[in-house]
Amino acid sequence: MQWLSQNLHIVWGLLLDHLWLSAVPIVLAFAISVPLGWLAARHRRIRTPLLTATGLLYAIPSLALFIMIPAIFGLAARSPWVAIIGLTLYGIALLARGAADAFGSVGRDTMLAADALGHSAWARFWRVELPLAGPVMLASLRVMAVSTVSLVTVGAVIGISSLGTLFTDGFQRGIDASIVTGLVLTVVVAFALDAVIVLVGRVAMPWRKAVPA
Amino acid sequence: MIRFDAVRKEYPDGTVAVEDVTLEVPSHGVVVLVGSSGCGKTTLLRMVNRMVEPTSGTVSIDGVDVRSIDKVELRRSIGYVLQAGGLLPHRTVADNVATVPVLQGTSRREARSAALGLLERVGLDPKLGDRYPAQLSGGQQQRVGVARALAADPNILLMDEPFGAVDPIVRDQLQQEMRTLQSELGKTILFVTHDIDEAFALGDEVLVLRKGAEVAQRGTPAEILANPADEFVSRFVGAGTSRRTLSVREVDGRRIVVDGDDRPTGVLAG
């Protein structure tokens, strides 16, 4: 406790780093996975290659990925963008299949009705397909968000600060309080982000509570 | 007026859904296509708003080939009532009814308030406007489906077995109300059903279809009942069955109509 009160401003700074290093990849991975999932769900031929390729991204060891990215993208080794790109790729790996299943879950009759009413392809996507894919997508999004928050800590090993820095520092200097603080706060951030996603889902999809499950 | 001119629909796998059909749906009339499932009646219906494009032949509305009209615009200009309502499950009842006007650029507020009026028109309490479709009975959903089709005040209504999923009592009610509504609105209606009684109840004209949407007979319900064109039509309408063979019997000074099995079905008026 004493360690924490003495290092509060450092911990706070790392917490903020951690938050945006999590939030940006989550948003990016979501924004990229939605169109990929839609393509996979609507075009049978590209479904398997696309989902296999995105799924394989997850097989790349995170440390290796974080070391490769600066070389590939010409970034400084400790740039936060290294973590953001890497975590976005992992996010896509986790979310693309879920997004494909989500779009696949939209009923054919509903899509037919949408067409019959005169939705353009664009209007049908935004007004019918995306909202109706929402509930299934939300489940994958929650897994992906929590996983991202936890993976952010790996960046600390290559010097990208986050709550993970409290682990690496704590190990090197033998400060247990630092390790425990990092661990507890990472879990808290994961829970908090999950709660935000659930809440946003509830506000954005009010019809779900009206539908008897 | 909707006109089908030598339309044919063949799918890539070789199935022929519609084989050379020519027919007209006069303006302000109700034409019912009746036939068993898989006879191509729905395919024919969907050619009108280009949900299905014919392999050959043309469909025209008031002399204009539908292929020359943008698909999306065409569909917005035609009311479509689907089986089981076909409501969007994530939209409230009012938003469902307001769908087409909103797509056409009417403000959501204006479209919603017009939607509440339409709900009343089809016999629903406007208070239901804030519910979701899943919270409504089948009959109520079907009424919402009709209200939604009317929302942009189209000249043409396409109705694809709209009352197929509701129980017989509600269906009778809906059919009756549809007749009342039609007498006020005078839309051009193309209606598809597999139920010959429904066809007779609603159609100014009825077309009995064989496989491949071939017209076996066309006429008013009375004409078809009086003179079935052939064995197929005769069987389809149940001509000669006890249900269709009525006779009059005198009971307590009143004339009772009985069917072929001697079961009373009604009382002769006057």
Automatic annotation (TrEMBL), chain A:
Subcellular location: Cell membrane; Membrane
PROSITE patterns, A to Z: ABC_TM1
Keywords: Membrane, Transmembrane, Transmembrane helix, Transport
Occurrences of domain ABC transmembrane type-1 (ranges): 15-197
Higher taxonomy: Bacteria, Bacillati, Actinomycetota, Actinomycetes, Micrococcales
Family label: Belongs to the binding-protein-dependent transport system permease family.
Main subcellular location: membrane
Keyword check for Membrane: yes
InterPro entries: ABC_transp_perm/SBD, MetI-like, MetI-like_sf
Name used for this protein in its record: ABC transporter permease
Chain ranges passing through the membrane: 20-41, 53-75, 81-100, 143-167, 179-200
A Pfam family matched in the record: BPD_transp_1
Membrane topology: Multi-pass membrane protein
Top-level taxon in the UniProt lineage: Bacteria
Entry keyword annotation includes Transmembrane helix: yes
Species for this entry: Agrococcus terreus
From TrEMBL, chain B:
Spans through the membrane: none
GO molecular function, one term: ATP binding
Keyword presence, GTP-binding: no
Domain ABC transporter, residue spans: 2-237
Alphabetically ordered keywords of this record: ATP-binding, Nucleotide-binding
PROSITE patterns, sorted: ABC_TRANSPORTER_1, ABC_TRANSPORTER_2
Superkingdom of this protein's organism: Bacteria
Pfam family, one: ABC_tran
Protein name per Swiss-Prot or TrEMBL: ABC transporter ATP-binding protein
Organism the protein comes from: Agrococcus terreus
Record lineage: Bacteria, Bacillati, Actinomycetota, Actinomycetes, Micrococcales
